[in-house]
């Protein structure tokens, strides 16, 4: 430890330390001091973090904490905190816990009453959102979308009216599939934005209509390389008549119109009479409702 960093970490405290997502200069001076000063660094991959720390001349005591061993490692880290050791948690890149391991550890440490200190720092989702120029007063982070095409399309469809900007991660082998589905589901009606390789040499930020993303990616095979954040602009609120029909139609196959209307009116907070009138209209075309 650099003697200047002695005392940079408080005893018995867990530090959440974001690390660079591409540019090593993004490791903050405070993060360096903490990583040098703690008794142990819990890292998603000890080799990746070891290499990064040695670049900065830090020889930390590393222990592995990843998706597959987190539950087992939590106990030993809690014991260390109870012995007044300080611990830093890092992932391979960016902010721990954000589509990365660490949730179980932080949950247990908070439950045990040990202090947790969060250092602000690199996070691909936040960096991408800050450059997208999409509404950012409220946004929702979804991690990775479903990997399989049919599930992904259903998932996008289910979020057609999501009222905030949607932010998600995607890997290079699925980005084209996601872009194709964005075009299919949202066409020209939604704006989307994509950031790739943030803080690296080929950093790029694109935005346009959902239907244009797939073509833009296909124009240059280099655009399919690297790491991606995809953002979708907020959807328009659903048309109440559409929402009523969407629920009423399947219910009318099972229930009398008056009963179906009661259920739908209460689920959507709509007036019962309005929904009943529509239920009667629809029932005119629908097969007779089954008797209860
Ligand atoms: N914890 C990290 C964070 O705070 O951003 C995210 C870890 S997650 C396992 C990895 C994903 O983050 C990548 O697949 C990619 O979608 C996104 N990502 C990471 N670094 C990125 C970068 N430099 N540019 C764009 N996206 C990046």
If you had to describe this structure to a student in words, what would you say it looks like?
It is a single chain. The protein is α/β, with parallel strands linked by helices and about 290 residues long. It is about 40% helix and about 15% strand. A five-stranded parallel β-sheet has the order 3-2-4-1-5, sandwiched between helices. A five-stranded mixed β-sheet has the order 6-7-10-8-9, sandwiched between helices. β8 and β9 form a beta hairpin. S-adenosylmethionine binds near residues 198 and 200.
Helix and strand topology:
Elements: E1 14-16, H1 29-37, E2 40-43, H2 46-55, E3 62-64, H3 70-82, E4 87-90, H4 103-111, E5 116-118, H5 124-132, E6 139-141, H6 149-158, E7 165-170, H7 175-186, E8 191-196, E9 204-209, H8 210-218, E10 228-232, H9 240-252, H10 257-268, H11 272-285
Parallel strand pairs: 1-4, 1-5, 2-3, 2-4, 6-7
Antiparallel strand pairs: 7-10, 8-9, 8-10
Helix pairs in contact: 3-4, 6-7, 7-8, 9-10, 9-11, 10-11
In angstroms, what separates the terminal alpha carbons?
Answer: 76 Å
Kindly report the name of the CATH homologous superfamily of the largest domain: Tetrapyrrole methylase, C-terminal domain
The residue ranges in which pLDDT falls below 50 over 5 or more consecutive positions are none
Order of helices and strands: EHEHEHEHEHEHEHEEHEHHH
Going across the biggest sheet, name each strand in turn.
3-2-4-1-5
CATH topology name of the largest domain, in short, is Methyltransferase, Cobalt-precorrin-4 Transmethylase, Domain 2
Residue share in helix: 40-55%
On the 0-100 scale, what is the average pLDDT? 95
């Amino acid at each position: 430890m650099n003697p200047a960093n002695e005392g940079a970490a408080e005893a018995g405290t867990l530090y959440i330390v974001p690390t660079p997502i591409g540019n090593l200069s993004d490791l903050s001076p405070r993060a360096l001091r903490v990583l040098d000063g703690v008794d142990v660094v819990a890292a998603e991959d000890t080799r990746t973090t070891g290499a990064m720390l040695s670049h900065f001349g830090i020889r930390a005591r590393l222990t592995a904490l990843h998706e597959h061993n987190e539950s087992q490692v939590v106990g030993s880290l809690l014991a260390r905190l109870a012995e007044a050791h300080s611990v830093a948690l890092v992932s391979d890149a960016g902010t721990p816990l954000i589509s990365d391991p660490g949730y179980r550890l932080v949950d247990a440490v908070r439950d045990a009453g040990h202090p947790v200190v969060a250092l602000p720092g690199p996070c691909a989702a936040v960096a991408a959102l800050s450059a997208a120029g999409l509404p950012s007063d409220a946004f929702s982070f979804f991690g990775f979308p479903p990997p399989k095409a049919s599930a992904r399309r259903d998932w996008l469809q289910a979020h057609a009216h999501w009222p905030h900007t949607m932010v998600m991660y995607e890997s290079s082998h699925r980005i084209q599939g996601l872009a194709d589905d964005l075009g299919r589901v949202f066409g020209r009606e939604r704006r989307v934005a994509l950031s790739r390789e943030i803080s690296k040499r080929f950093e790029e930020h694109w935005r346009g209509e959902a239907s244009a993303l797939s073509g833009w990616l296909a124009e240059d095979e280099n655009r399919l390389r690297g790491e991606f954040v995809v953002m979708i602009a907020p959807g328009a609120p659903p048309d109440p008549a559409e929402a009523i029909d969407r629920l009423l139609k399947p219910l009318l196959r099972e229930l009398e119109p008056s009963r179906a209307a009661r259920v739908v009116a209460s689920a959507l907070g709509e007036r019962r009479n309005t929904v009943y009138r529509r239920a009667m209209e629809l029932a005119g075309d629908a097969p007779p409702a089954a008797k209860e």
